[in-house]
Structure formats: structure tokens, C-alpha cells
Amino acid sequence: MEVWELPTSIVVGGIKYDIRTDFRAILDILKTFNDPEFENDEKWIVALTILYIDFDEMPPHDYEEAREKAIEFIDMGIKDDGKKKPHTMDWEQDGAVIIPSVNRVLGREIRAMQYLHWWTFLGAYMEIGESLFSQILNVRIKRAKGKKLDDWERDFYKENKNLIDLDVKYTEEEQTEIDRLNALLNGQKGV
Question: Which residue of 51, 130, 183, 185 is most buried, as measured by CB atoms within 10 A?
Fold first, then answer.
């Protein structure tokens, strides 16, 4: 992929496919990957259907290449080092604190824009400086790595626990079982 341009299509199996490049479409894809209700194969079908405008015309033998190129597009061509990293952010949960930071970088309200290319959004995201989101992220990273929080970070965590702690997402069946066990532990009957 050419980083000096904003791609609007991807070649898969020698055929050029137009793609959805607005940041909202890619965030929908990322949201799908965090949904425990979907199996991995289902997540990929949803993701490819969102990204490739004519996915229904793509031959199934090209799905693997389409998947690899989708990852490359979403990651803006930046290669992953392959090292396992702690889960420290969630696009959906953190959206309310990410958006103001991206707005500040771009100098405008992105939710009011008809269209914003994913790479432009992601570039602005990577340039987020000192902000509420960066403070949240720093505390999460320190906690995930087992590092001691500074006094101000401990206070910040206590005051903003609801923003800092990432929600754990369960399937409907898992949540039903958790609720059943909680009811048993709390001495409730009829569950």
C-alpha cells in the first residue's frame, strides 16, 4: 500500500475492489471483533462484508487474501511486531474520550463530517498528545505491566475508575451463568 495516498480500493485475486474507507465503517469492523457473540469466522465475514463494497461478488478462494489485505489496510500498512501486548484500549468503550482528542488534533468536530478516511482518523489518533485519553491509557498500561502508580495516578485512578477499567465482554450464555452463580452466592432462590 502506498502511504502517500489514501487508498479507496484493494486488489484481491487480481481484481480491484472498492472499499469503505470512512472511519465509522472501520470502527464498526473493530467493534465486531470485540463482540463475544460472534465466532471468529463470523467476525471475518462481517468485517469483509463491511470493508469490501462488492464482497458478495468475491470468489471464496480469495477470502484469505482479502483478509490479509484488510488487516494491512486497517493497520495503515504498519507491521505488527508479533509480541503479545496487554489489552489497554477499546474503541467502543473509549470512544467518548478518543473523539475529543482526535477533534483537537484535526481542529474540527469529526462526528459532523460527512466523511473522514480511516487513515486520516488513525493518523490523528496516533498524534494524540496530553489528554484525558492519554492519562487513562498511561494508567492502564502501568497497571497491565504491574508497575507502581505515582501518587497522582493513584488518585486519578480512584476518581476515574469507571473510565479506566475496561469492561469484560461476555457471551449471552456466559452472562447467564455468571448471573446464576451470583444469585446462588447471594442466597437467592428460583434461579
Answer: 51
